[in-house]
């Protein structure tokens, strides 16, 4: 009973998806030491080309966006060329792929980009550190970031747009701006991490400004039909939620709707989580406030996703961990074959 997942879907006049199953963005930390995608990564993505759309693992837009080891970039010529190998391999297998554009903000660690300079800054809306340390590199505790200046904000916006242009040069079909999961853009959207008193903080309109400026700069560079965004109205990772966050997203979502994005994608690990300040699930909240293409995600099986699409909870589903465990996820669902279960040990190799 998952036939509806196999109905084609037109994102807009230029991008048609063969089915409604997206591969969720999944950081794998397998780029080489220059943050260039490898042949093994090209093979990994090519094996998953039957997805209606692959969203790449998060790709850093510039060196100080890095918060995890060996995450690929899109700011050097060799990175663009590495991604060309990936996008060609996916296209040769009949697939489509968007790049997810990422800056980790206060979750960045200078260990990755400082070249030994102890004063290398961590960029964030406000000088409030996130507690804890880098996953799998626990000796790297998070530093107190620098509250970015207006000039630095303008440069960041420019760098997102440049990375989007680089993504198109690398053969991607479009980009998903990573505005979710407690990273830089999301840090502007939540009161926990944004205490600014200038035009980027203090009220919903100001707190939405950076996200919208990045979206507009990317649209300007590559077009709205190739631009998507991921958001986490429910804070659950790298951030604490605040009841006032609701107003920020109440303001942001209708503004986004006017941009005619390729799609809006929710960032969450489990969509059965409920948030008091959103009145329930994130997907229900976003659906009620945003009337264009919505991608649901978060611990869905093909069956639960099919029924959510059937009852109009969202239009497309992104599948994460099951796609790590099953490169042929789409074929298995179509043929009603059993899936291999995901386990965290699978993260150590690229199958
Ligand atoms: C993720 N997720 C994630 N999200 C994102 O926006 N960018 C990323 O690079 C990553 N990386 C990542 C790595 C790993 C190992 C996991 C498990 C998850 C979140 C992911 O896209 C998705 O939202 C969740 O995995 C929930 O979907 P599933 O796995 O329940 O289908
Ligand atoms: C985006 C980079 C992420 C790198 C590794 C992610 C590994 C995720 C493992 C799954 C468990 C995540 C749980 C986090 C959410 C907490 C929910 C309350």
Automatic annotation (TrEMBL):
InterPro entries: Aldolase_TIM, OxRdtase_FMN_N, Oye-like. This is Alkene reductase. It comes from the Bacteria. Residues 4-337 form the NADH:flavin oxidoreductase/NADH oxidase N-terminal domain. PANTHER family: NADH OXIDOREDUCTASE-RELATED (PTHR22893), OXIDOREDUCTASE-RELATED (PTHR22893:SF55). Gene3D superfamilies: Aldolase class I.
């Amino acid at each position: 009973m998952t036939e509806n997942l196999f109905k084609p879907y037109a994102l807009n006049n230029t991008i048609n998806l063969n089915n409604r199953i997206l591969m969720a963005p999944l950081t794998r930390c397998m780029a080489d030491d220059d943050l260039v995608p490898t042949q093994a990564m090209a093979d990994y993505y090519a094996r998953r080309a039957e997805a209606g759309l692959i969203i790449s693992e998060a790709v850093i837009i510039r060196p100080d966006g890095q918060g995890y080891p060996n995450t690929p970039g899109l700011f050097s010529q060799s990175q663009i060329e590495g991604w060309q190998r990936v996008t060609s391999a996916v296209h040769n297998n009949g697939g489509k792929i968007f790049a997810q554009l990422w800056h980790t903000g206060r979750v960045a660690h200078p260990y990755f980009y400082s070249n030994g300079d102890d004063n290398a800054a961590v960029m964030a809306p406000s000088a409030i550190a996130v507690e804890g340390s880098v996953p799998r590199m626990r000796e790297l505790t998070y530093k107190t970031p620098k509250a970015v200046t207006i000039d630095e904000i303008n440069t960041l916006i420019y760098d997102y747009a440049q990375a989007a242009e680089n993504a198109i040069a690398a053969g991607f079909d479009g980009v998903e701006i990573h505005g979710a999961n407690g990273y830089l853009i999301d840090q502007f959207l939540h009161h926990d991490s944004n205490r600014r008193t200038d035009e980027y903080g203090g009220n919903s309109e100001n707190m939405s400004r950076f996200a919208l400026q990045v979206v507009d700069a990317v649209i300007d560079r590559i077009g709205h039909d190739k631009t998507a965004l991921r958001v986490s109205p429910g804070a659950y990772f790298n951030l604490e939620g605040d009841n006032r966050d609701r107003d920020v997203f109440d303001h942001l979502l209708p503004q986004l709707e006017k941009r005619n994005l390729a799609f809006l994608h929710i960032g969450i690990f489990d969509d059965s989580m409920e948030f008091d300040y959103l009145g329930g699930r994130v997907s229900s909240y976003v659906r009620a406030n945003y009337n264009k293409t919505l991608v649901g995600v978060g611990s869905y099986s093909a069956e639960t996703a099919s029924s959510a699409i059937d009852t109009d909870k969202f239009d497309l589903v992104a599948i994460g961990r099951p796609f790590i465990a099953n490169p042929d996820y789409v074929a298995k669902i179509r043929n009603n074959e059993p899936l291999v279960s995901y386990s965290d040990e699978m993260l150590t190799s690229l199958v």
